[in-house]
Amino acid sequence: MYQNLKESMAKLCKYEEKLGGDLYFAIEPKPNEGHPAMLIPTVASALVFWNKLEEEFKITR
């Protein structure tokens, strides 16, 4: 599930970059919402997520 999230976000970023690159994407961690499949529960995990996008998919900030 986490890999699917990374791939989808990378595709979205690359598609938006082709259209001009004027949009910003943000991730909002929700640490107090106890969903059993939380993929990005903390700020640290959000930062790691973006770093992984940069490393694996060459997405720029």
UniProtKB/TrEMBL annotation:
The keyword Nucleus appears for this protein: no
Database matches in Gene3D superfamilies: Divalent-metal-dependent TIM barrel enzymes
Swiss-Prot/TrEMBL keywords: Carbohydrate metabolism, Isomerase, Metal-binding
GO annotation, biological process: carbohydrate metabolic process
Gene Ontology molecular function terms on file: metal ion binding; xylose isomerase activity
InterPro entries: Xyl_isomerase-like_sf (IPR036237), Xylose_isomerase (IPR001998)
Protein name listed in UniProt: Uncharacterized protein
Species this chain originates from: marine sediment metagenome
